[in-house]
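TOKENISED FOLD:
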Amino acid sequence: EGWQSDNLDEEQIARGLRSGNRINRIWDVNPAAGGPIVRDRLWVYASYRHWGTYNTVAGSFKDRDFSALFYEPTDEQNLFPVWHQSGVARFTTQLNQRHKLNLYYDWQYTYFGNCFVPTLLTAISACPEFKNIPQYIVQGSWSSPVTNKLLLEAGGTITPQDFHGYRRPGVSPTQFAISDPLSPPGSPTLWGSSPTSYGYNRSDQMNFRGSASYVTGSHAVKVGFTLLHAWRFNTQEPNNSVTLSLRNRQPFSITQYATPIQFHETLRYNMGLYAQDQWRVRRMTLNYGVRLDFLNARVDAQEIAAGPFTPARRFDAVENVPNWKDVDPRFGLSYDLFGDGRTALKASIGRYVVGESYTIARAVNPVQSTVNQVTRTWSSASGTYNPFVDCDLSNPAANSRFPGQAACGPINNPLFGQVATRTTNYDPAIVDGWHVRPNNWEFQVSVQREVVPRVSVYAGYTRRWFGNLFATRNLNVSNADYTHYCVPVPSDPRLPGGGGGERCGLYDVNRIIAPNNLIFNSSSVGGIDDVYDGFDLDVNARLGRGVLLSGGVSL
């Protein structure tokens, strides 16, 4: 901390800035050790690492009392600690002459002691503590040279993680999250507790692979598979299922949440089956192969218990969101153009698919389409600033526990806790089938020539183009929702034709249009062109004594 300068001057202090950003502490400790456990049989390498930072944010001061109704600062600047731990061990064992086994374990812990992105607009009481519990990686791999031509390999990895948001010590489970956008300048606009950051962000992932390689003098054949299986579980757990909104410290409105709010999706498999070969024919080397890609995700069946404002709910599983199947060929060649080993002509072309996991599954999850929160006006007839005392929050209509005094208005959406019209829908033709997955082709051709000893020139061309790109249409919109209008154009010699007349072709929307989006293949409306063309020219020279000079241009 003492190695930092401070440019906080009297002018800034006079304008209300009492402190600046500062790193209070920063460290990184990483001992490691390794060696043989059993001679020529078993080895281990292990390490431990502990690293992190403590820093403060300009103008951010600790709450005087976490349980107080209104935020009042102390003279103690908020500390934002972030630190990590990692314990790693890797064991390598030679079971016998033809079987080698590797085992790897990496335990990790991450602690964000305050808001993930600190800001003076959020008081420390409204910052959750984020912790990774659990977070570790377990990995094993095996290899076996069965003969001097055949190699077998396999491996697997399992990693569970949960970036969980906890209430910080001193914040009660019944403490409301309170916001006031009219707070005095330099004061937080959110305090009390966190409105939506408490809860699970749990995911588990398993990866497996296996392959067989057969190498001869002219061929190197490899076949194998990759398999990924994963699931995730997310929740939102606001205190009391209610947050308060004030205006200049006066009751204004409340937000009610349809807790429990939880999402569960599974990536059933992301699998690839592949076969490839490298074949040398005199001065030409060919590389060719094919990969079958399969991806299937679903929204799991979800049982949601009753909450303060909603009954128990059950949602059936939604399968095949998406269910993609693709055949992806790849081909390449390298040719010694003149047979002297100085000029190489290379070309390749291949098809690749876009990465995907839960995007579609989350969009069609019924919980995503549920009206999970509503707002209503509120005035504290009891003077307690507690809406549970002021009115019956389970009643969607305007009501008050104090006759003749206003308390809670009606909720702004009568579908609270129910599945509303889904705002995002996918055309079945793009989520289930062969070759409907977004993809890209890539073609490359290049030539490399040694012009003089230790000096080479490279020229290459790359073209990449994308297919099955998606377009979106709001089905709630029609031409009748817009009114055409014109505006007069002033006469002015600086305008084309001297100006005058009217400029038409302008449209105004007639109403607020709710989204009802359909996502579909853009080819049905003319398609989307997304193409990359690249030209590269490079020169490399080895000048001796370890000096390498290179330069070029890319267009």
In short: The radius of gyration is 32 Å. The chain has a mean pLDDT of 93. DSSP finds five helices and 32 strands in the chain. The first helix runs from residue 10 to 14.
